[in-house]
Structure formats: structure tokens, C-alpha cells
Amino acid sequence: MNFTLIQQYSSGSNLPGLFLNKMTTINPVLPSELPLLRSIAIQTFEETYPEDAQRTLYIHNNYSTEALEKELHSPDTDCFFARKEGKVAGFMKLVNFRSPPFLEGSNTELARIYVLKSFQGQQTGTDLLEFALEYARQKQSRYLWLLVWEGNYKGIQFYQKHGFHLVGRMPFLYGAVWEEDYVYAIEI
Fold first, then answer.
1. What is the pLDDT of residue 20?
2. Predicted confidence band at 21 (pLDDT cuts at 50, 70, 90)?
3. CA 60, 80, 165, 167: dihedral to nearest 10 degrees?
4. Beta pairing partners, 4
5. Domain ranges of the chain
6. How far is 127 from 180, CA to CA, in rounded Å?
7. Residues 123 and 161 sit within 8 Å (Cβ to Cβ)
8. 121: alpha, beta or left, given left = phi > 0 and alpha = psi -120 to 50?
9. Of the N and C termini of the chain, which has fewer Cβ atoms inside 10 Å?
10. Superfamily (CATH) of domain 4-142
11. Closest to 103 in 3D by CA, of 185, 43, 31, 172
12. To 10 degrees, what angle do helices 34-48 and 65-72 make?
């Protein structure tokens, strides 16, 4: 897919915005958009994972206003919204210079990528993923990597379709329970 990175400097941000086929816009989440990020993060997480006590605790711990505000102000973390026709369709979180011990080099983690159910099947996830790959290239990362729950078959299939390979497992705290999630990566 052809796309153009366009520098945006709104509200002092020098993070890139991405315009794909004039249908999807990907741009940085601004601090003033924190309530919207929180709302979209909770909605997409609830649409993706079955309801139980661990999901509730995970949302409480990771999608609180304080937790998301801390992420937005972290120098190694960038969050982006995907918009279609001006409406938020999904979001992602990218973390620079973090890597599992078995991946060499400087890498970028695709820590979150979620698309609202109503926008799935419209290339939104692919647009976000292609943006993440370009972002990782610009950061001179060796790999773009992510964690995925072994029961997220739709996600695993999506990542494999886009060239990601299973490279290991890592612990992940889901609510109060430690799980061993899959690590998928793609060399940049």
C-alpha cells in the first residue's frame, strides 16, 4: 500500500501523521484527548476479551486516567489514533527501545493495537500496522514485536498474515494473574 508520512506540528507535537488512501488518518493522541483514548481503549478491550474479574482488574490498572496519562508523557512511548471520516476507529501504542531478552538490537514494541468492532474489516488494522512498521523503520529498530494472548486466534492470524513470526513467550500480567503470552516479531 502506498502511503505518505506527513509531519504535523499541532499542539507542539512533531510526531508524524499518516494519510492512507485519503480514507484513514493516523495521528498522535494529544494530551487533551486523554478521555477519548480512555473510552476507546476500554471499549475495544471489552469487545476483544471475555468478561471476567481479571479483565475488569486489567482495565482498572491499565486504562485508568492516571495510567494512560503516564503513558502519554513517557518519552519512549507514542500513542496514535486511527480515524475514518473524522471518527476514531482504533488506536495503538508503540514503545521504543524495549525488547524481550531473546531479540537482539534496538527494537520497537507494538504494545497495543485495537480497532473498534464497527470498523473491523475496513483495513484499519492493516493501516495501523503499516504505520507501526514505518515508525519502527524511522526509529532504526531491528524488529517490531508484540505480545499476543494464545487464545486471540483472530489477532494471531492477522499478525501472521502480515509477516510476523512466533519467536518466543513472555510473562504478561493480566489482572492479578501472570500468563505466558506469545511473542511475535517481524524484522524491519
1. 54
2. low
3. -50
4. 19
5. 4-142
6. 28
7. no
8. left
9. N
10. Gcn5-related N-acetyltransferase (GNAT) (3.40.630.30)
11. 185
12. 110
Q: Would you tell me how many other CB atoms lie within 10 Å of the CB of residue 64?
A: 12
Measured CA to CA, the distance from residue 184 to residue 68 in angstroms comes to 24
Phi, psi of 53 (to 5 degrees): -65, -35
Q: Which long-range contacts (CB under 8 A, 24 or more apart) does 127-130 make?
A: 127/1, 127/3, 127/18, 127/20, 127/24, 127/26, 127/82, 128/26, 128/80, 128/82, 128/90, 128/92, 129/162, 130/1, 130/3, 130/20
This prediction has a pTM of 0.87
> In 10 A of CB 32, how many CB atoms?
8
SS (H, E, C) 102-153: CCCCCCEEEEEEEECHHHCCCCHHHHHHHHHHHHHHHCCCCEEEEEECCCCH
Q: Judge contact between 126 and 113, C-beta under 8 A.
A: no
**pLDDT tens, position by position, 127-175:** 999 999 999 999 999 999 999 999 999 999 999 999 999 999 999 999 9
